[in-house]
Fold:
Amino acid sequence: MRRRHALPPIPRSVWALGVVSLLMDTSSEMIHALLPLYMVSVLGTSVLAVGLIEGIAEATAAITKVFSGALSDRLGKRKLLTVLGYGLAAMTKPVFPLAPGPEWLIAARFVDRVGKGIRGAPRDALVADITPAELRGAAFGLRQALDTVGAFVGPLLAILLMWLTASHFQTVFWVAVVPAFMALYVLIVCVREPDKPAAAIKVAAPLALRELARLGNGYWRLVILATLFTLARFSEAFLLLRGQALGLAPLWAPAVLVLMSLAYSLSAYPAGALSDKVGRRGVLMFGLVLLVLADLLLAWLPGLSGLALGVILWGLHMGFTQGVFSALIADSAPEALRGTAFGVFHLVTGAALLAASVLAGGLWDWAGYQTTFMFGAACAAITLAGLWFIRRNG
Structure:
């Protein structure tokens, strides 16, 4: 009898959440792939201002995540908050083509990230609730991979539409509205939250110190390492600006994100599945090595070939780290506090991303792009050393 080669038994709701991420990321990246260039070249904002705006937007999302994650633990419901977050993000998309000035763009970016913050921790906790422990790396890797397919489909569509419309930004922004509302539909119809036993414990005050202490030393060590790591991986907007500095035309600038996201999406699921088999920390260490190499290439290798190699390695490092970090959080946190654990994790790393983005922009304006990428390489090397020490000493 012929043997069937079935896909890994990852739950259907995880696949559906991946499709939701794919569609929403397609929408978001169609906008975000062009927004930094639009602000710098059309509106005349500085690179430092772009870094500040990006950092504040992401930090806002991170702050929101901690409260939505804790609320999902208190209510024992994750899907409701996930729908609310994706719905808010979808509702803000029409603001981008209608915005009469930069203040509206900044406000739309801000509110969009609030939606991301509301959905982030409950969605990640929902993936952990749905998935057996032995498949968590693969499940988080799959969701990240599908999410990142959207991250390169979005810029590809942006390139095509910029070409067809003679670089008319508003048309691209209008088309981006469609996949955002498709994502909301798939989430409502296709994702099912598992029933919790009647005796399941609901945490009345997830953010109380006594509850945070239950997360354990292993969790907090992981948060510290992730904070150092986040200082190394500032906003991908700086990859776009590196391409612009090399003379890449605005029409082709989104190709930078396409290349990065392609490398990310192709590596995320295999890296997550590998972490289920050989352990998470070794996979994470390899991802950090890739980031160091990416920063060095972006700082010192000239021309578009150097940019391409650096961007590919940047994408690979994302594939080998992002899903694995999520799986490590799910592994280390008690089930009743998973939403809080993801929320606190995103809060702390979001604050680090604010600092990293502002510092990267300041270093770029003050001393040039090489200093920015060398700073990232140094932070990644420090994180790698810390992870090696923890792994060696248990």
User: Anything to note?
Assistant: The mean pLDDT is 81. The chain is about 80% helix and 0% strand.
